[in-house]
């Protein structure tokens, strides 16, 4: 597990491009038959990727957590951006399709990841946060009928925003949030931009009570996103390519513009779970 420390905005304004990328960019999340994990001191979030191809991967706590098992004191959200996969939790198996997700509550001990087809392996994207109590583990689907242990994303949590004229026509699909999938502090969702649109989260905002991680995907090899971060009057940028993630401190804006349309997964942890608790930045004030 890779460890990242927190950073002061006063220091970040002096970082070079290389230092910005070292501190905030996760350049590769998915390795064949391996689990990659990055532990950030910013609200103690863990971001990672599990890509089982021919092997079944076991999620372990590691020395860094000083825990008997990974979710002894934590909760976790998972969204699969690859082929159909299998997540097994304490002996119970869940088939998780493309762009389906899971919330796994605190106390789940034995967690494994596998793929149904090695030629189209699953790519499980992970966000994990400290948890003070246990909420039910559920499979999250975007469409279909709910059943025991299965939650369907509500229509009101599929929000269409922006316009092609403003280059930001996008749909936000909220997976983990109060009223749909209960958690201690973790929220997760996915935003998809329509062809011809390239801007996300603009006008931008900060939220001092929560930090956020963006993971960009569905980008061709020669495409990229300019991810904007920093204080509103001290902005910086990081070039992000397919299946890379950026850690965003609570004091930082988090927005992007791509060389074409793309999709990204957002995950938030922190003081509260109020999705609308944002401090909006006026376009004229950005520098």
Largest sheet: 8 strands, mixed
- Structurally, the number of domains stands at 1
Low-pLDDT stretches are: none
The CATH architecture is Sandwich
Strand content: 35-45%
Cofactor: Zn(2+)
EC number: 5.3.1.17
Family: Belongs to the KduI family.
Pathway: Glycan metabolism; pectin degradation; 2-dehydro-3-deoxy-D-gluconate from pectin: step 4/5
Task: Write up what this structure looks like.
With 287 residues, this protein is mainly beta. The protein has one domain: Sandwich (Jelly Rolls). 4% of the residues lie in helices and 43% in strands. The chain contains two helices and 25 strands. The strands form five sheets. It has an eight-stranded mixed β-sheet with strand order 1-3-4-11-6-9-12-13, with no helix packed on it. The chain is globular, with a radius of gyration of 18 Å. The relative contact order is 0.17. The model has no long low-confidence stretch (mean pLDDT 96). Catalyzes the isomerization of 5-dehydro-4-deoxy-D-glucuronate to 3-deoxy-D-glycero-2,5-hexodiulosonate. Keywords: Isomerase, Metal-binding, Zinc. Its cofactor is Zn(2+). GO terms for molecular function: 4-deoxy-L-threo-5-hexosulose-uronate ketol-isomerase activity. It comes from Faecalicatena faecalis.
């Amino acid at each position: 597990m890779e460890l990242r420390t927190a950073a002061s905005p006063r220091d970040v304004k002096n970082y070079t491009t290389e230092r910005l990328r070292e501190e905030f960019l996760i350049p590769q999340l998915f390795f064949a038959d391996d689990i990659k994990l990055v532990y950030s001191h910013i609200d103690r979030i863990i971001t990672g990727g599990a890509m089982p191809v021919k092997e079944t991967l076991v999620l372990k706590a590691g020395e860094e957590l000083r825990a008997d098992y990974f979710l002894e004191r934590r909760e976790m959200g998972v969204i699969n951006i690859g082929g159909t996969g299998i997540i097994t939790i304490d002996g119970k198996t869940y088939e998780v399709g493309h762009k389906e997700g899971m919330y796994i509550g605190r106390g789940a001990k034995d967690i494994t990841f596998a793929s149904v087809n090695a030629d189209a392996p699953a790519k499980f994207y992970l966000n994990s946060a400290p948890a003070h109590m246990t909420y039910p583990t559920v499979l999250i689907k975007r469409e279909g009928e709910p059943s025991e242990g299965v939650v369907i994303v509500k229509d009101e949590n599929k929000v269409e925003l922006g316009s092609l004229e403003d280059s930001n026509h996008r749909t936000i699909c909220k997976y983990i949030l109060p009223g749909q999938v209960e958690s201690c502090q973790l929220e997760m969702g996915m935003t998809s931009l329509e062809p011809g649109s390239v801007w996300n989260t603009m006008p931008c905002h900060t939220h001092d009570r929560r930090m956020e991680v963006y993971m960009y995907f569905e980008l061709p090899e020669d495409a990229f996103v300019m991810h904007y971060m920093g204080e509103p009057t001290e902005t910086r940028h990081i070039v992000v390519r397919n299946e890379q993630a950026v850690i965003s401190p609570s004091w930082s804006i988090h927005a992007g513009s791509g060389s074409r349309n793309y999709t990204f997964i957002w995950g938030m942890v922190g003081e509260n779970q109020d999705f609308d608790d944002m401090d909006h930045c006026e376009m004229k004030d950005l520098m």
